[in-house]
Write a structure and sequence with these properties.
The complex is a heterodimer of chains A (449) and B (385). Chain A has 12 helices and 20 strands. By secondary structure, chain A is an alpha/beta fold. A 7-stranded mixed β-sheet of chain A has the order 1-13-12-11-14-9-10, sandwiched between helices. Helix content of chain B is 64%, strand content 1%. The chains are: A alpha/beta (449), B mainly alpha (385). Chain A: Keywords: Ion transport, NAD, Sodium, Sodium transport, Translocase, Transport, Ubiquinone.
Chain lengths: 449, 385
């Protein structure tokens, strides 16, 4: 048993609406979509036209600058629409399922017999490469690079996040198959688990190094786990993926198919039947939330968690990297003298509202900003929720003045948006920190490539 | 409430960009957000935000200042009647104090907020809340007999030169309230020091009891006498001094509020007191003059030390912004404050100067802390390589 790495800084937001560990029943929706906006830095180029027939695993589009990176359809059916936004940017590639469940056949293979190049090629052909992401930058990995390690976080500590033990139970073999594939890409595979979870699935895996973490969110973030075990310095690369994605990779080799099945958790204070649902990547959330939400207020539907997820419509689509759908109140109301009220129902890391008197309570929180944008005034807040040896405020200042050297020196290589989402949450000045960080990362990529 | 909302909704279209009264957008926005937390929701990034905002933060600091303000009002009356040798009831003291103190508060807020609104208007910004605190701090660090026009001039100076020239709240180098006080101290020294200004009515000198001195303990010590007030009196605050700074007890209540709510940095407060105490002890050992002989604990209760440590040094904008830096910054403030106090008999109140000096050096301290972080990261890279 390895030693427990204690994460002290961070914050668990006491949200109401946690899902029970039961499977809910919901039909698969008719529409599915792949959203190019889920992938940073990818310029999509369509490979099929509206009306074309596709199978599960058929290439829908690829990256214009790295054509080997392909994005495939999760289901069989026909291409229904390509929804575009400003400047004709592709937002959603929508597939209408025909229910036939036809699959592209990629052929089974034993990963152990293949070279790294062959494994990469097979994964790219089947549209699985986008699941391998890299730190720094949190973008799709570059197959030419040699990562110093492959890291998988075995738990999600975000608010209302799915319980990985529950999600993965019964899929141990596929997970091991996926790990065996990953080991062909990078022999040094690490998994982070939580100390108070059983994590049997992970501890029984062959060929991985297991690290145990304790503490509040963001302890489950892979970036935090990497920071505490093998921090990334300039020039180093670590590849990461999520457990359900590893399973899909395993199934490509054992069954020869592109497996889009995912288990997602449906949670949030406004959901009636909270729980776990079997669905597919890119599924419309309409069948999950229809007649299953409270309708007193305007609602906000989020693919992902409340800190890093994407806002979607009630018939919007599940994001590629998400295994959670959260529904919260929109909070588009004016609150009379809100800043002066005692605030028994308000959640704050500070003790400036009287809600500190009832610590254990679960809060029903909404998407209201609770204030206006200000310049940096309060100091030391970010440091309390970022468990890394990084001075976040100074990094953000470096990003705002576009000082590449300083950004590098202050540790931008170690951060992804999810790691500083809590900083954004607690910020008194309501600064858009995740967007700021992404701006910095984009600048790094542009200047250093 | 509903009517107010409707009224605001009716006015709103007329003050938007391009509308007839566009000029008043900032003013309208300031008033609207004062009454109603806006209905804006998060769009990108996090979908939820901590309930705290800058208005709440500033309101908590003002709340923490209330004990010192109330005590200051009472003490103003108490000292006044003590000087006249008259008996007065509690409410008479409060009444007299309120008459003296509240006009200063009103002038400070009126002038400061007026200028803030003007600048926001000109720049097309939202009005930022920083002055809510400065406007209360300024009266509390002034002697009660100060003419109101001086309060107005000093407030204007501090808002314009101390803050707005740098870009407003969050951009200033020095604590604006201390800029106001420093301005008055160097521009009108006779109104800011000496034995008479600290007690209301003493400057005119009518009807004062024979032999009554309005001198502060620091003034006495600086002129070679042992302070007449005991540590207990200094701690409770029944001594002459600036309006809000006399009662260490009231200030500590404020400190408790700031620390508990997490709004003021306890690191700065603790290290400032530690620095002051250590310097006091060193001077005790030396003991060459009356000021050096003042007990180290007594030093911390005298003058503006406690007030400065709790409310001035902790201003997050002008203080160091790194956590390690806060320890160094606070310690040096305490250390220097007592040093200035003892070595500069012409002006025994060193806290203001110490804080302004350390405000100036705060970016330098931060720079070294940041460099330390950078070096650690480089070293790690080398070890790994």
């Amino acid at each position: 048993m390895s030693e427990v790495i204690k994460i002290k800084k961070g914050l668990d937001i006491q949200l109401a609406g946690k899902a029970d560990k039961v499977f809910g029943q919901a039909e698969l929706p008719e529409l599915f979509a792949v959203k190019p906006t889920d992938f940073h830095g990818v310029v999509p180029k369509m490979a099929v036209k509206v009306g074309d027939k596709v199978k599960a695993g058929t290439v829908l589009f690829f990256d214009k600058y790295r054509p080997e990176i392909k994005f495939v359809s999760p289901v069989s059916g026909e291409l229904a629409a390509v929804n575009r936004g400003e400047r004709r940017r592709i937002l959603e590639v929508v597939v209408k399922a025909d229910g036939a469940d036809e699959k592209e056949q990629f052929g089974t293979a034993n990963a152990a017999d293949l070279s790294k190049e062959q494994v990469v090629e097979k994964m790219q052909a089947a549209g699985l490469w986008p699941f391998i992401r890299k730190r720094p930058y949190d973008v799709i990995a570059n197959a030419d690079e040699t990562p110093k390690a492959f890291f998988i976080s075995g738990f999600d500590s975000a608010p209302l996040a799915p319980d990985m033990d529950f999600v993965l139970s019964g899929q141990e073999e596929a997970l091991q198959a996926g790990i065996d594939v990953i080991k062909r890409l990078c022999d040094n595979v690490h998994v982070g688990v939580q100390n108070d979870a059983a994590s049997k699935v992970f501890k029984n895996l062959n060929g991985v190094t297991v690290h145990t973490f304790s503490g509040p969110h963001p302890a489950g973030n892979v970036g935090v786990q990497i920071h505490h075990t093998m921090p990334i310095s300039k020039g180093e690369v670590v590849w990461v993926a999520q457990p359900q994605e590893i399973i899909a990779i395993g199934k490509l080799f054992t069954e020869g198919i592109y497996d889009a099945n995912r288990i997602v958790v449906l949670a949030g204070s406004e959901v009636e039947k909270k729980g776990y649902y079997r669905t597919k990547l890119g599924a419309s959330i309409s069948t999950l939330v229809k007649n299953n939400v409270k309708t007193d207020d305007t609602l906000r539907y989020i693919s992902g968690n409340v800190l890093t997820g994407t806002q979607v419509e009630e018939d919007g689509f599940l994001g590629t990297y998400h295994s959670q759908v959260t529904v919260i109140p929109e909070g588009d109301y004016y609150e009379f003298m809100g800043w002066a009220m005692p605030g028994f129902n308000k959640f704050s890391m500070s003790h400036s509202f009287f809600s500190w008197m009832c610590k254990k309570k679960e809060y029903r929180l909404d998407a209201n900003m609770h204030g206006g944008l200000r310049s940096f005034v309060v100091s030391g807040q970010y440091d309390k929720v970022l468990p890394m040896d990084i001075l976040p405020e100074f990094l953000f200042r470096a990003i705002l003045v576009e000082d590449i050297d300083k950004m590098e020196q202050l540790g931008i290589y170690e951060l992804a948006e999810e790691d500083i989402a809590l900083c954004e949450f607690v910020c008194t000045s309501k600064q858009p920190l995740q967007a700021t960080l992404r701006k910095g990362i984009d600048l790094m990529i542009k200047e250093l490539s | 409430m509903k009517a107010l909302r409707n009224l605001l909704d009716n006015i709103k279209p007329h003050v938007q960009k391009g509308a007839k009264f566009e000029k008043f957008h900032s003013t309208f926005d300031a008033l609207e957000t004062l009454f109603f937390v806006p209905n804006t929701t998060n769009k990108n990034g996090v979908h939820m935000r901590d309930a705290i905002d800058l208005k709440r933060t500033m309101a908590i600091v003002v709340l923490a200042l209330v004990p010192a303000l109330l005590f200051g009002i009472w003490n103003t009356g108490y000292q006044h009647f003590l000087a006249l040798g008259q008996d007065a009831s509690f409410w008479e003291m409060i009444g007299h104090g309120a008459l003296k103190v509240l006009p200063i508060v009103v002038v400070s807020y009126g002038v400061g907020l007026g200028i803030e609104f003007m600048f926001a208007q000109i720049r097309g910004h939202e009005v930022q809340e920083g002055f809510l605190v400065s406007g209360m701090l300024i009266p509390l660090v002034l002697p009660v007999d100060i003419p109101l026009w001086m309060v107005a001039v000093a407030t204007a100076f501090s808002v314009v030169i101390g803050k707005e020239v740098f870009g407003g709240t969050g951009m200033n180098i020095w604590n604006p309230a201390l800029v106001a006080r420093a301005f008055l101290f160097f521009a009108y020294p006779s109104k800011m020091s000496g034995d008479l200004v600290w007690i209301s009515g003493l400057t005119k000198g009518e009807g004062v009891v024979d032999g009554f001195s309005g001198a502060t303990s620091l003034g006495q010590a600086a002129s070679g006498m042992a302070p007449t007030h005991s540590i207990a009196e200094s701690f409770l605050g029944m001594i002459p001094g600036s309006i809000g700074e006399t009662s260490t007890l009231a200030i500590l209540i404020g400190a408790a509020i700031l620390i508990y709510t997490g709004i003021g940095s306890w690191k700065i407060m603790v290290s400032t007191f530690a620095g002051g105490y250590l310097m006091g002890l060193l001077f005790n050992l030396w003991g060459a003059n009356a000021l050096m002989q003042v007990d180290a604990i007594h030093h911390l209760c005298l003058g503006g030390f406690a007030f400065g440590a709790v409310f001035m040094a902790t201003d997050p904008v002008s203080a160091t912004r790194t956590e390690k830096g806060k320890w160094i910054y606070g310690f040096l403030i305490g250390f220097l404050a007592i040093m200035v106090r003892v070595f500069n008999p012409a002006y025994p109140e060193g806290v203001m100067l110490a804080i302004l000096l350390m405000n100036t050096f705060a970016p330098l301290i931060d720079h070294y802390v940041v460099q330390g972080n950078i070096k650690r990261r480089l070293k790690r890279a080398k070890v790994a390589a």
